[in-house]
Design a protein that fits this description.
The protein is mostly helical. Helices cover 71% and strands 8% of the residues.
Length: 129
């Protein structure tokens, strides 16, 4: 079984939604926009609070918010209050889960635990006062 055959369905699905996926990835690929999404995980946030938290000019924040709204990751409620959408929440969760379960992160966790184990076994050699 070739790799291409195994991923045929995935390739087809990605190709069908290529431009939409690219737009979402561009929106998520900016540090400030990711910070906005994380802030909105705490609940609805007024525009002024987002500006304050990001420490950016109002025009820059407005541009970031617009880009996130264009790909349906956030929405604006009345009175300039922003919320994360169901899509936004799903993408953030998927990114966090993929990151935590990635082989490189798993290796880092294992190495950290291993170092702690070595440290504990070393310290246990000495009597406690």
């Amino acid at each position: 079984m070739t790799t291409e055959f195994v991923y045929e369905h995935l390739i087809e699905a990605l190709n069908l939604s290529f431009s939409e996926i690219t737009s979402i990835m561009k929106a998520l690929g900016n540090e400030k926009r990711l910070q906005i999404l994380i802030l909105l995980l705490k609940g609805p946030q007024p525009y002024a609070k987002i500006v304050f938290e990001l420490e950016l000019k109002k025009t820059a924040v407005s541009n970031h918010l617009t880009q996130l709204m264009e790909v349906n990751l956030i929405s604006r409620e009345g009175n300039g209050v922003y919320i994360i959408t169901g899509d936004g929440l799903k993408f953030i969760k998927a990114i966090e889960q993929a990151y935590q379960q990635s082989p490189s992160q798993q290796l880092k966790k294992f190495e950290s635990l291993e170092r702690r184990g070595i440290s504990s076994s070393f310290l246990n050699r000495f009597p406690q006062p």
